[in-house]
Specification:
- The chain has 297 residues and is an alpha/beta fold.
- It contains eleven helices and ten strands.
- Helix content is 50%, strand content 17%.
- Helix 1 runs parallel beside helix 5 and helix 5 runs antiparallel to helix 6.
- The N and C termini lie far apart (39 Å).
- Bound molecules: fructose -6-phosphate.
- Fructose -6-phosphate binds next to helix 1 and helix 8.
Length: 297
């Protein structure tokens, strides 16, 4: 069970996908504030992964204390060394992202994703659910992330600033993604709300047709996380549904993706990466977009 709040909860969702895929283990991701007040079924032998930048979030801390009393093992993924959650956990890994000074958790989020990936890889190796080749491939993929992030910062900032200026007057934004990028859509929307005070919602792209599509018109920018992954064709058809209703599509795309580039009004490009690693890249343009819209407003 992964327990967290806010941005850390979004990292937990990515962790769920990673651990289920690589380790073939059931994972539930819980809002600490709900987990704390209801009466969850916890058995000794259950492992609770607590994710927290500050290590002091009260709902997360109390949820963990309750679970610990019921015999669960607590594994902390915490940024602040020596914080309350770090001290009460049985085991854990610090993210060592450095202090988060602003209100928005950004580098702590990407560091949480890295720790979750390493955790899933090690657990998969121990459980024998990953081949040595795939293990090595993913370690190399993780190793390549800093250079790929540097590429985004170097080559995409201007484009993102221009997008920010273009959509500065929007009252609402919708963020859509599938698979590993569904949590990234949620995180992109949260960052925009926090930093620019614009209303934004994140949704699984396919779920959009079950209600939110009613809101789509020429006033609504819809941000798709549409990088090349096994869902690419499906996300293209979701983009076409939005365009058919005159929504304005902004997309995060993989370098060289002409299909989505031709459909969208604006794109932010990221380098290609393995699907399991790509959330680490696709979140960066969304963090920058929120920042530059905030600055522009
Ligand atoms: C978003 C943000 C919050 C925190 C949440 C949990 O940018 O900062 O959503 O993620 O309050 O805080 P931590 O991770 O310190 O437990």
């Amino acid at each position: 069970v992964i327990v967290a709040c806010g941005t850390s909860w979004h990292a937990g969702l990515v962790g769920e996908y990673l651990i289920e895929e690589l380790c073939r283990l059931n994972v539930e991701v819980e809002y600490a504030s709900e987990f704390r007040y209801r009466n969850p079924v916890i058995s000794s032998g259950d492992v609770i992964i607590a994710i927290s930048q500050s290590g002091e979030t009260a709902d997360t801390l109390v949820a963990l204390e309750n679970a610990k009393k019921q015999g669960a093992t607590i594994f902390g993924i915490v940024n602040v060394v020596g914080s309350s959650i770090a001290r009460m956990a049985h085991a854990g890994a610090y993210t060592h992202a450095g202090p988060e000074i602003g209100v928005a958790s950004t580098k702590a989020f990407t560091a949480q994703l890295v720790v979750l990936h390493l955790f899933a890889l090690k657990l998969a190796e121990l459980r024998g659910t990953i081949t040595p080749e795939r293990f090595r491939e993913l370690v190399h993929e993780l190793d390549a992330v800093p250079d790929k992030v540097a590429w985004i910062l170097q080559h995409q900032e201007e484009a993102i600033q221009a997008i920010a200026r273009r959509y500065i007057d929007a009252h609402d934004f919708l963020y859509l993604g599938r698979g590993y990028h569904f949590p990234i859509a949620l995180e992109g929307a949260l960052k925009l709300k926090e930093i620019s005070y614009i209303h934004a919602e994140g949704y699984p792209a396919a779920e959009m047709k079950h209600g939110p599509i009613a809101l789509v018109d020429e006033q609504l920018p819809v941000v798709f996380v549409a990088t090349r992954d096994p869902y690419h064709e499906k996300i293209v058809s979701n983009i076409q549904e939005i365009i058919a209703r005159k929504g304005k599509v902004i997309a995060v795309v993989t370098e060289g993706d002409q299909v989505v580039t031709d459909l969208a009004e604006a794109v932010m490009t990221v380098p290609a990466a393995d699907e399991t690693v790509s959330p680490l890249l696709s979140v960066i343009p969304l963090q920058l977009l929120a920042y530059y819209i905030g600055v522009a407003r």
